[in-house]
Amino acid sequence: MPTLLIIHHTPSPFMQAMFEAVVAGATDPEIEGVEVVRRAALAVSSADVLAADGYLLGTPANLGYMSGALKHAFDVIYYPCLDSTRGRPFGLYLHGNEGTEGAERGVTSITTGLGWAKAADYVAVSGKPGKDDLETCWELGATVAAQLMA
Length: 150
Description:
The protein has helices spanning 13-26, 46-51, 68-81, 101-114, 131-148; strands spanning 3-8, 35-40, 54-62, 65-66, 89-96, 117-118, 123-126. It is of the alpha/beta class.
């Protein structure tokens, strides 16, 4: 059974709402045969990443960059996963109050180095996530999970 790994840093109510919407999309009953595993960015291991077939990444944009927690996750998994995870699909959702461009560039740089395939447009939200924002998060989760269906 294909596995979708959600690596997230969820320190705020806004990130929690986005995370829940992504999970709801990824676990929609119409998506069959995909196991969804959730790991906090500070707890994820290279074994978790190697065991997964695709990834969803969630982070706040802090001071113009991804959270330290997500950067730590990449630091832990980068070299152990470098050659074994190429071509796997991923998606990204992020929240920022002052802009998300730097965080997007950072994640793009690292995932390009890993050879991961961007499965959908990034979901970037500023301020309180509205209904449309949460629906877009749901769609992101569903899109990446659907790509893993056998």
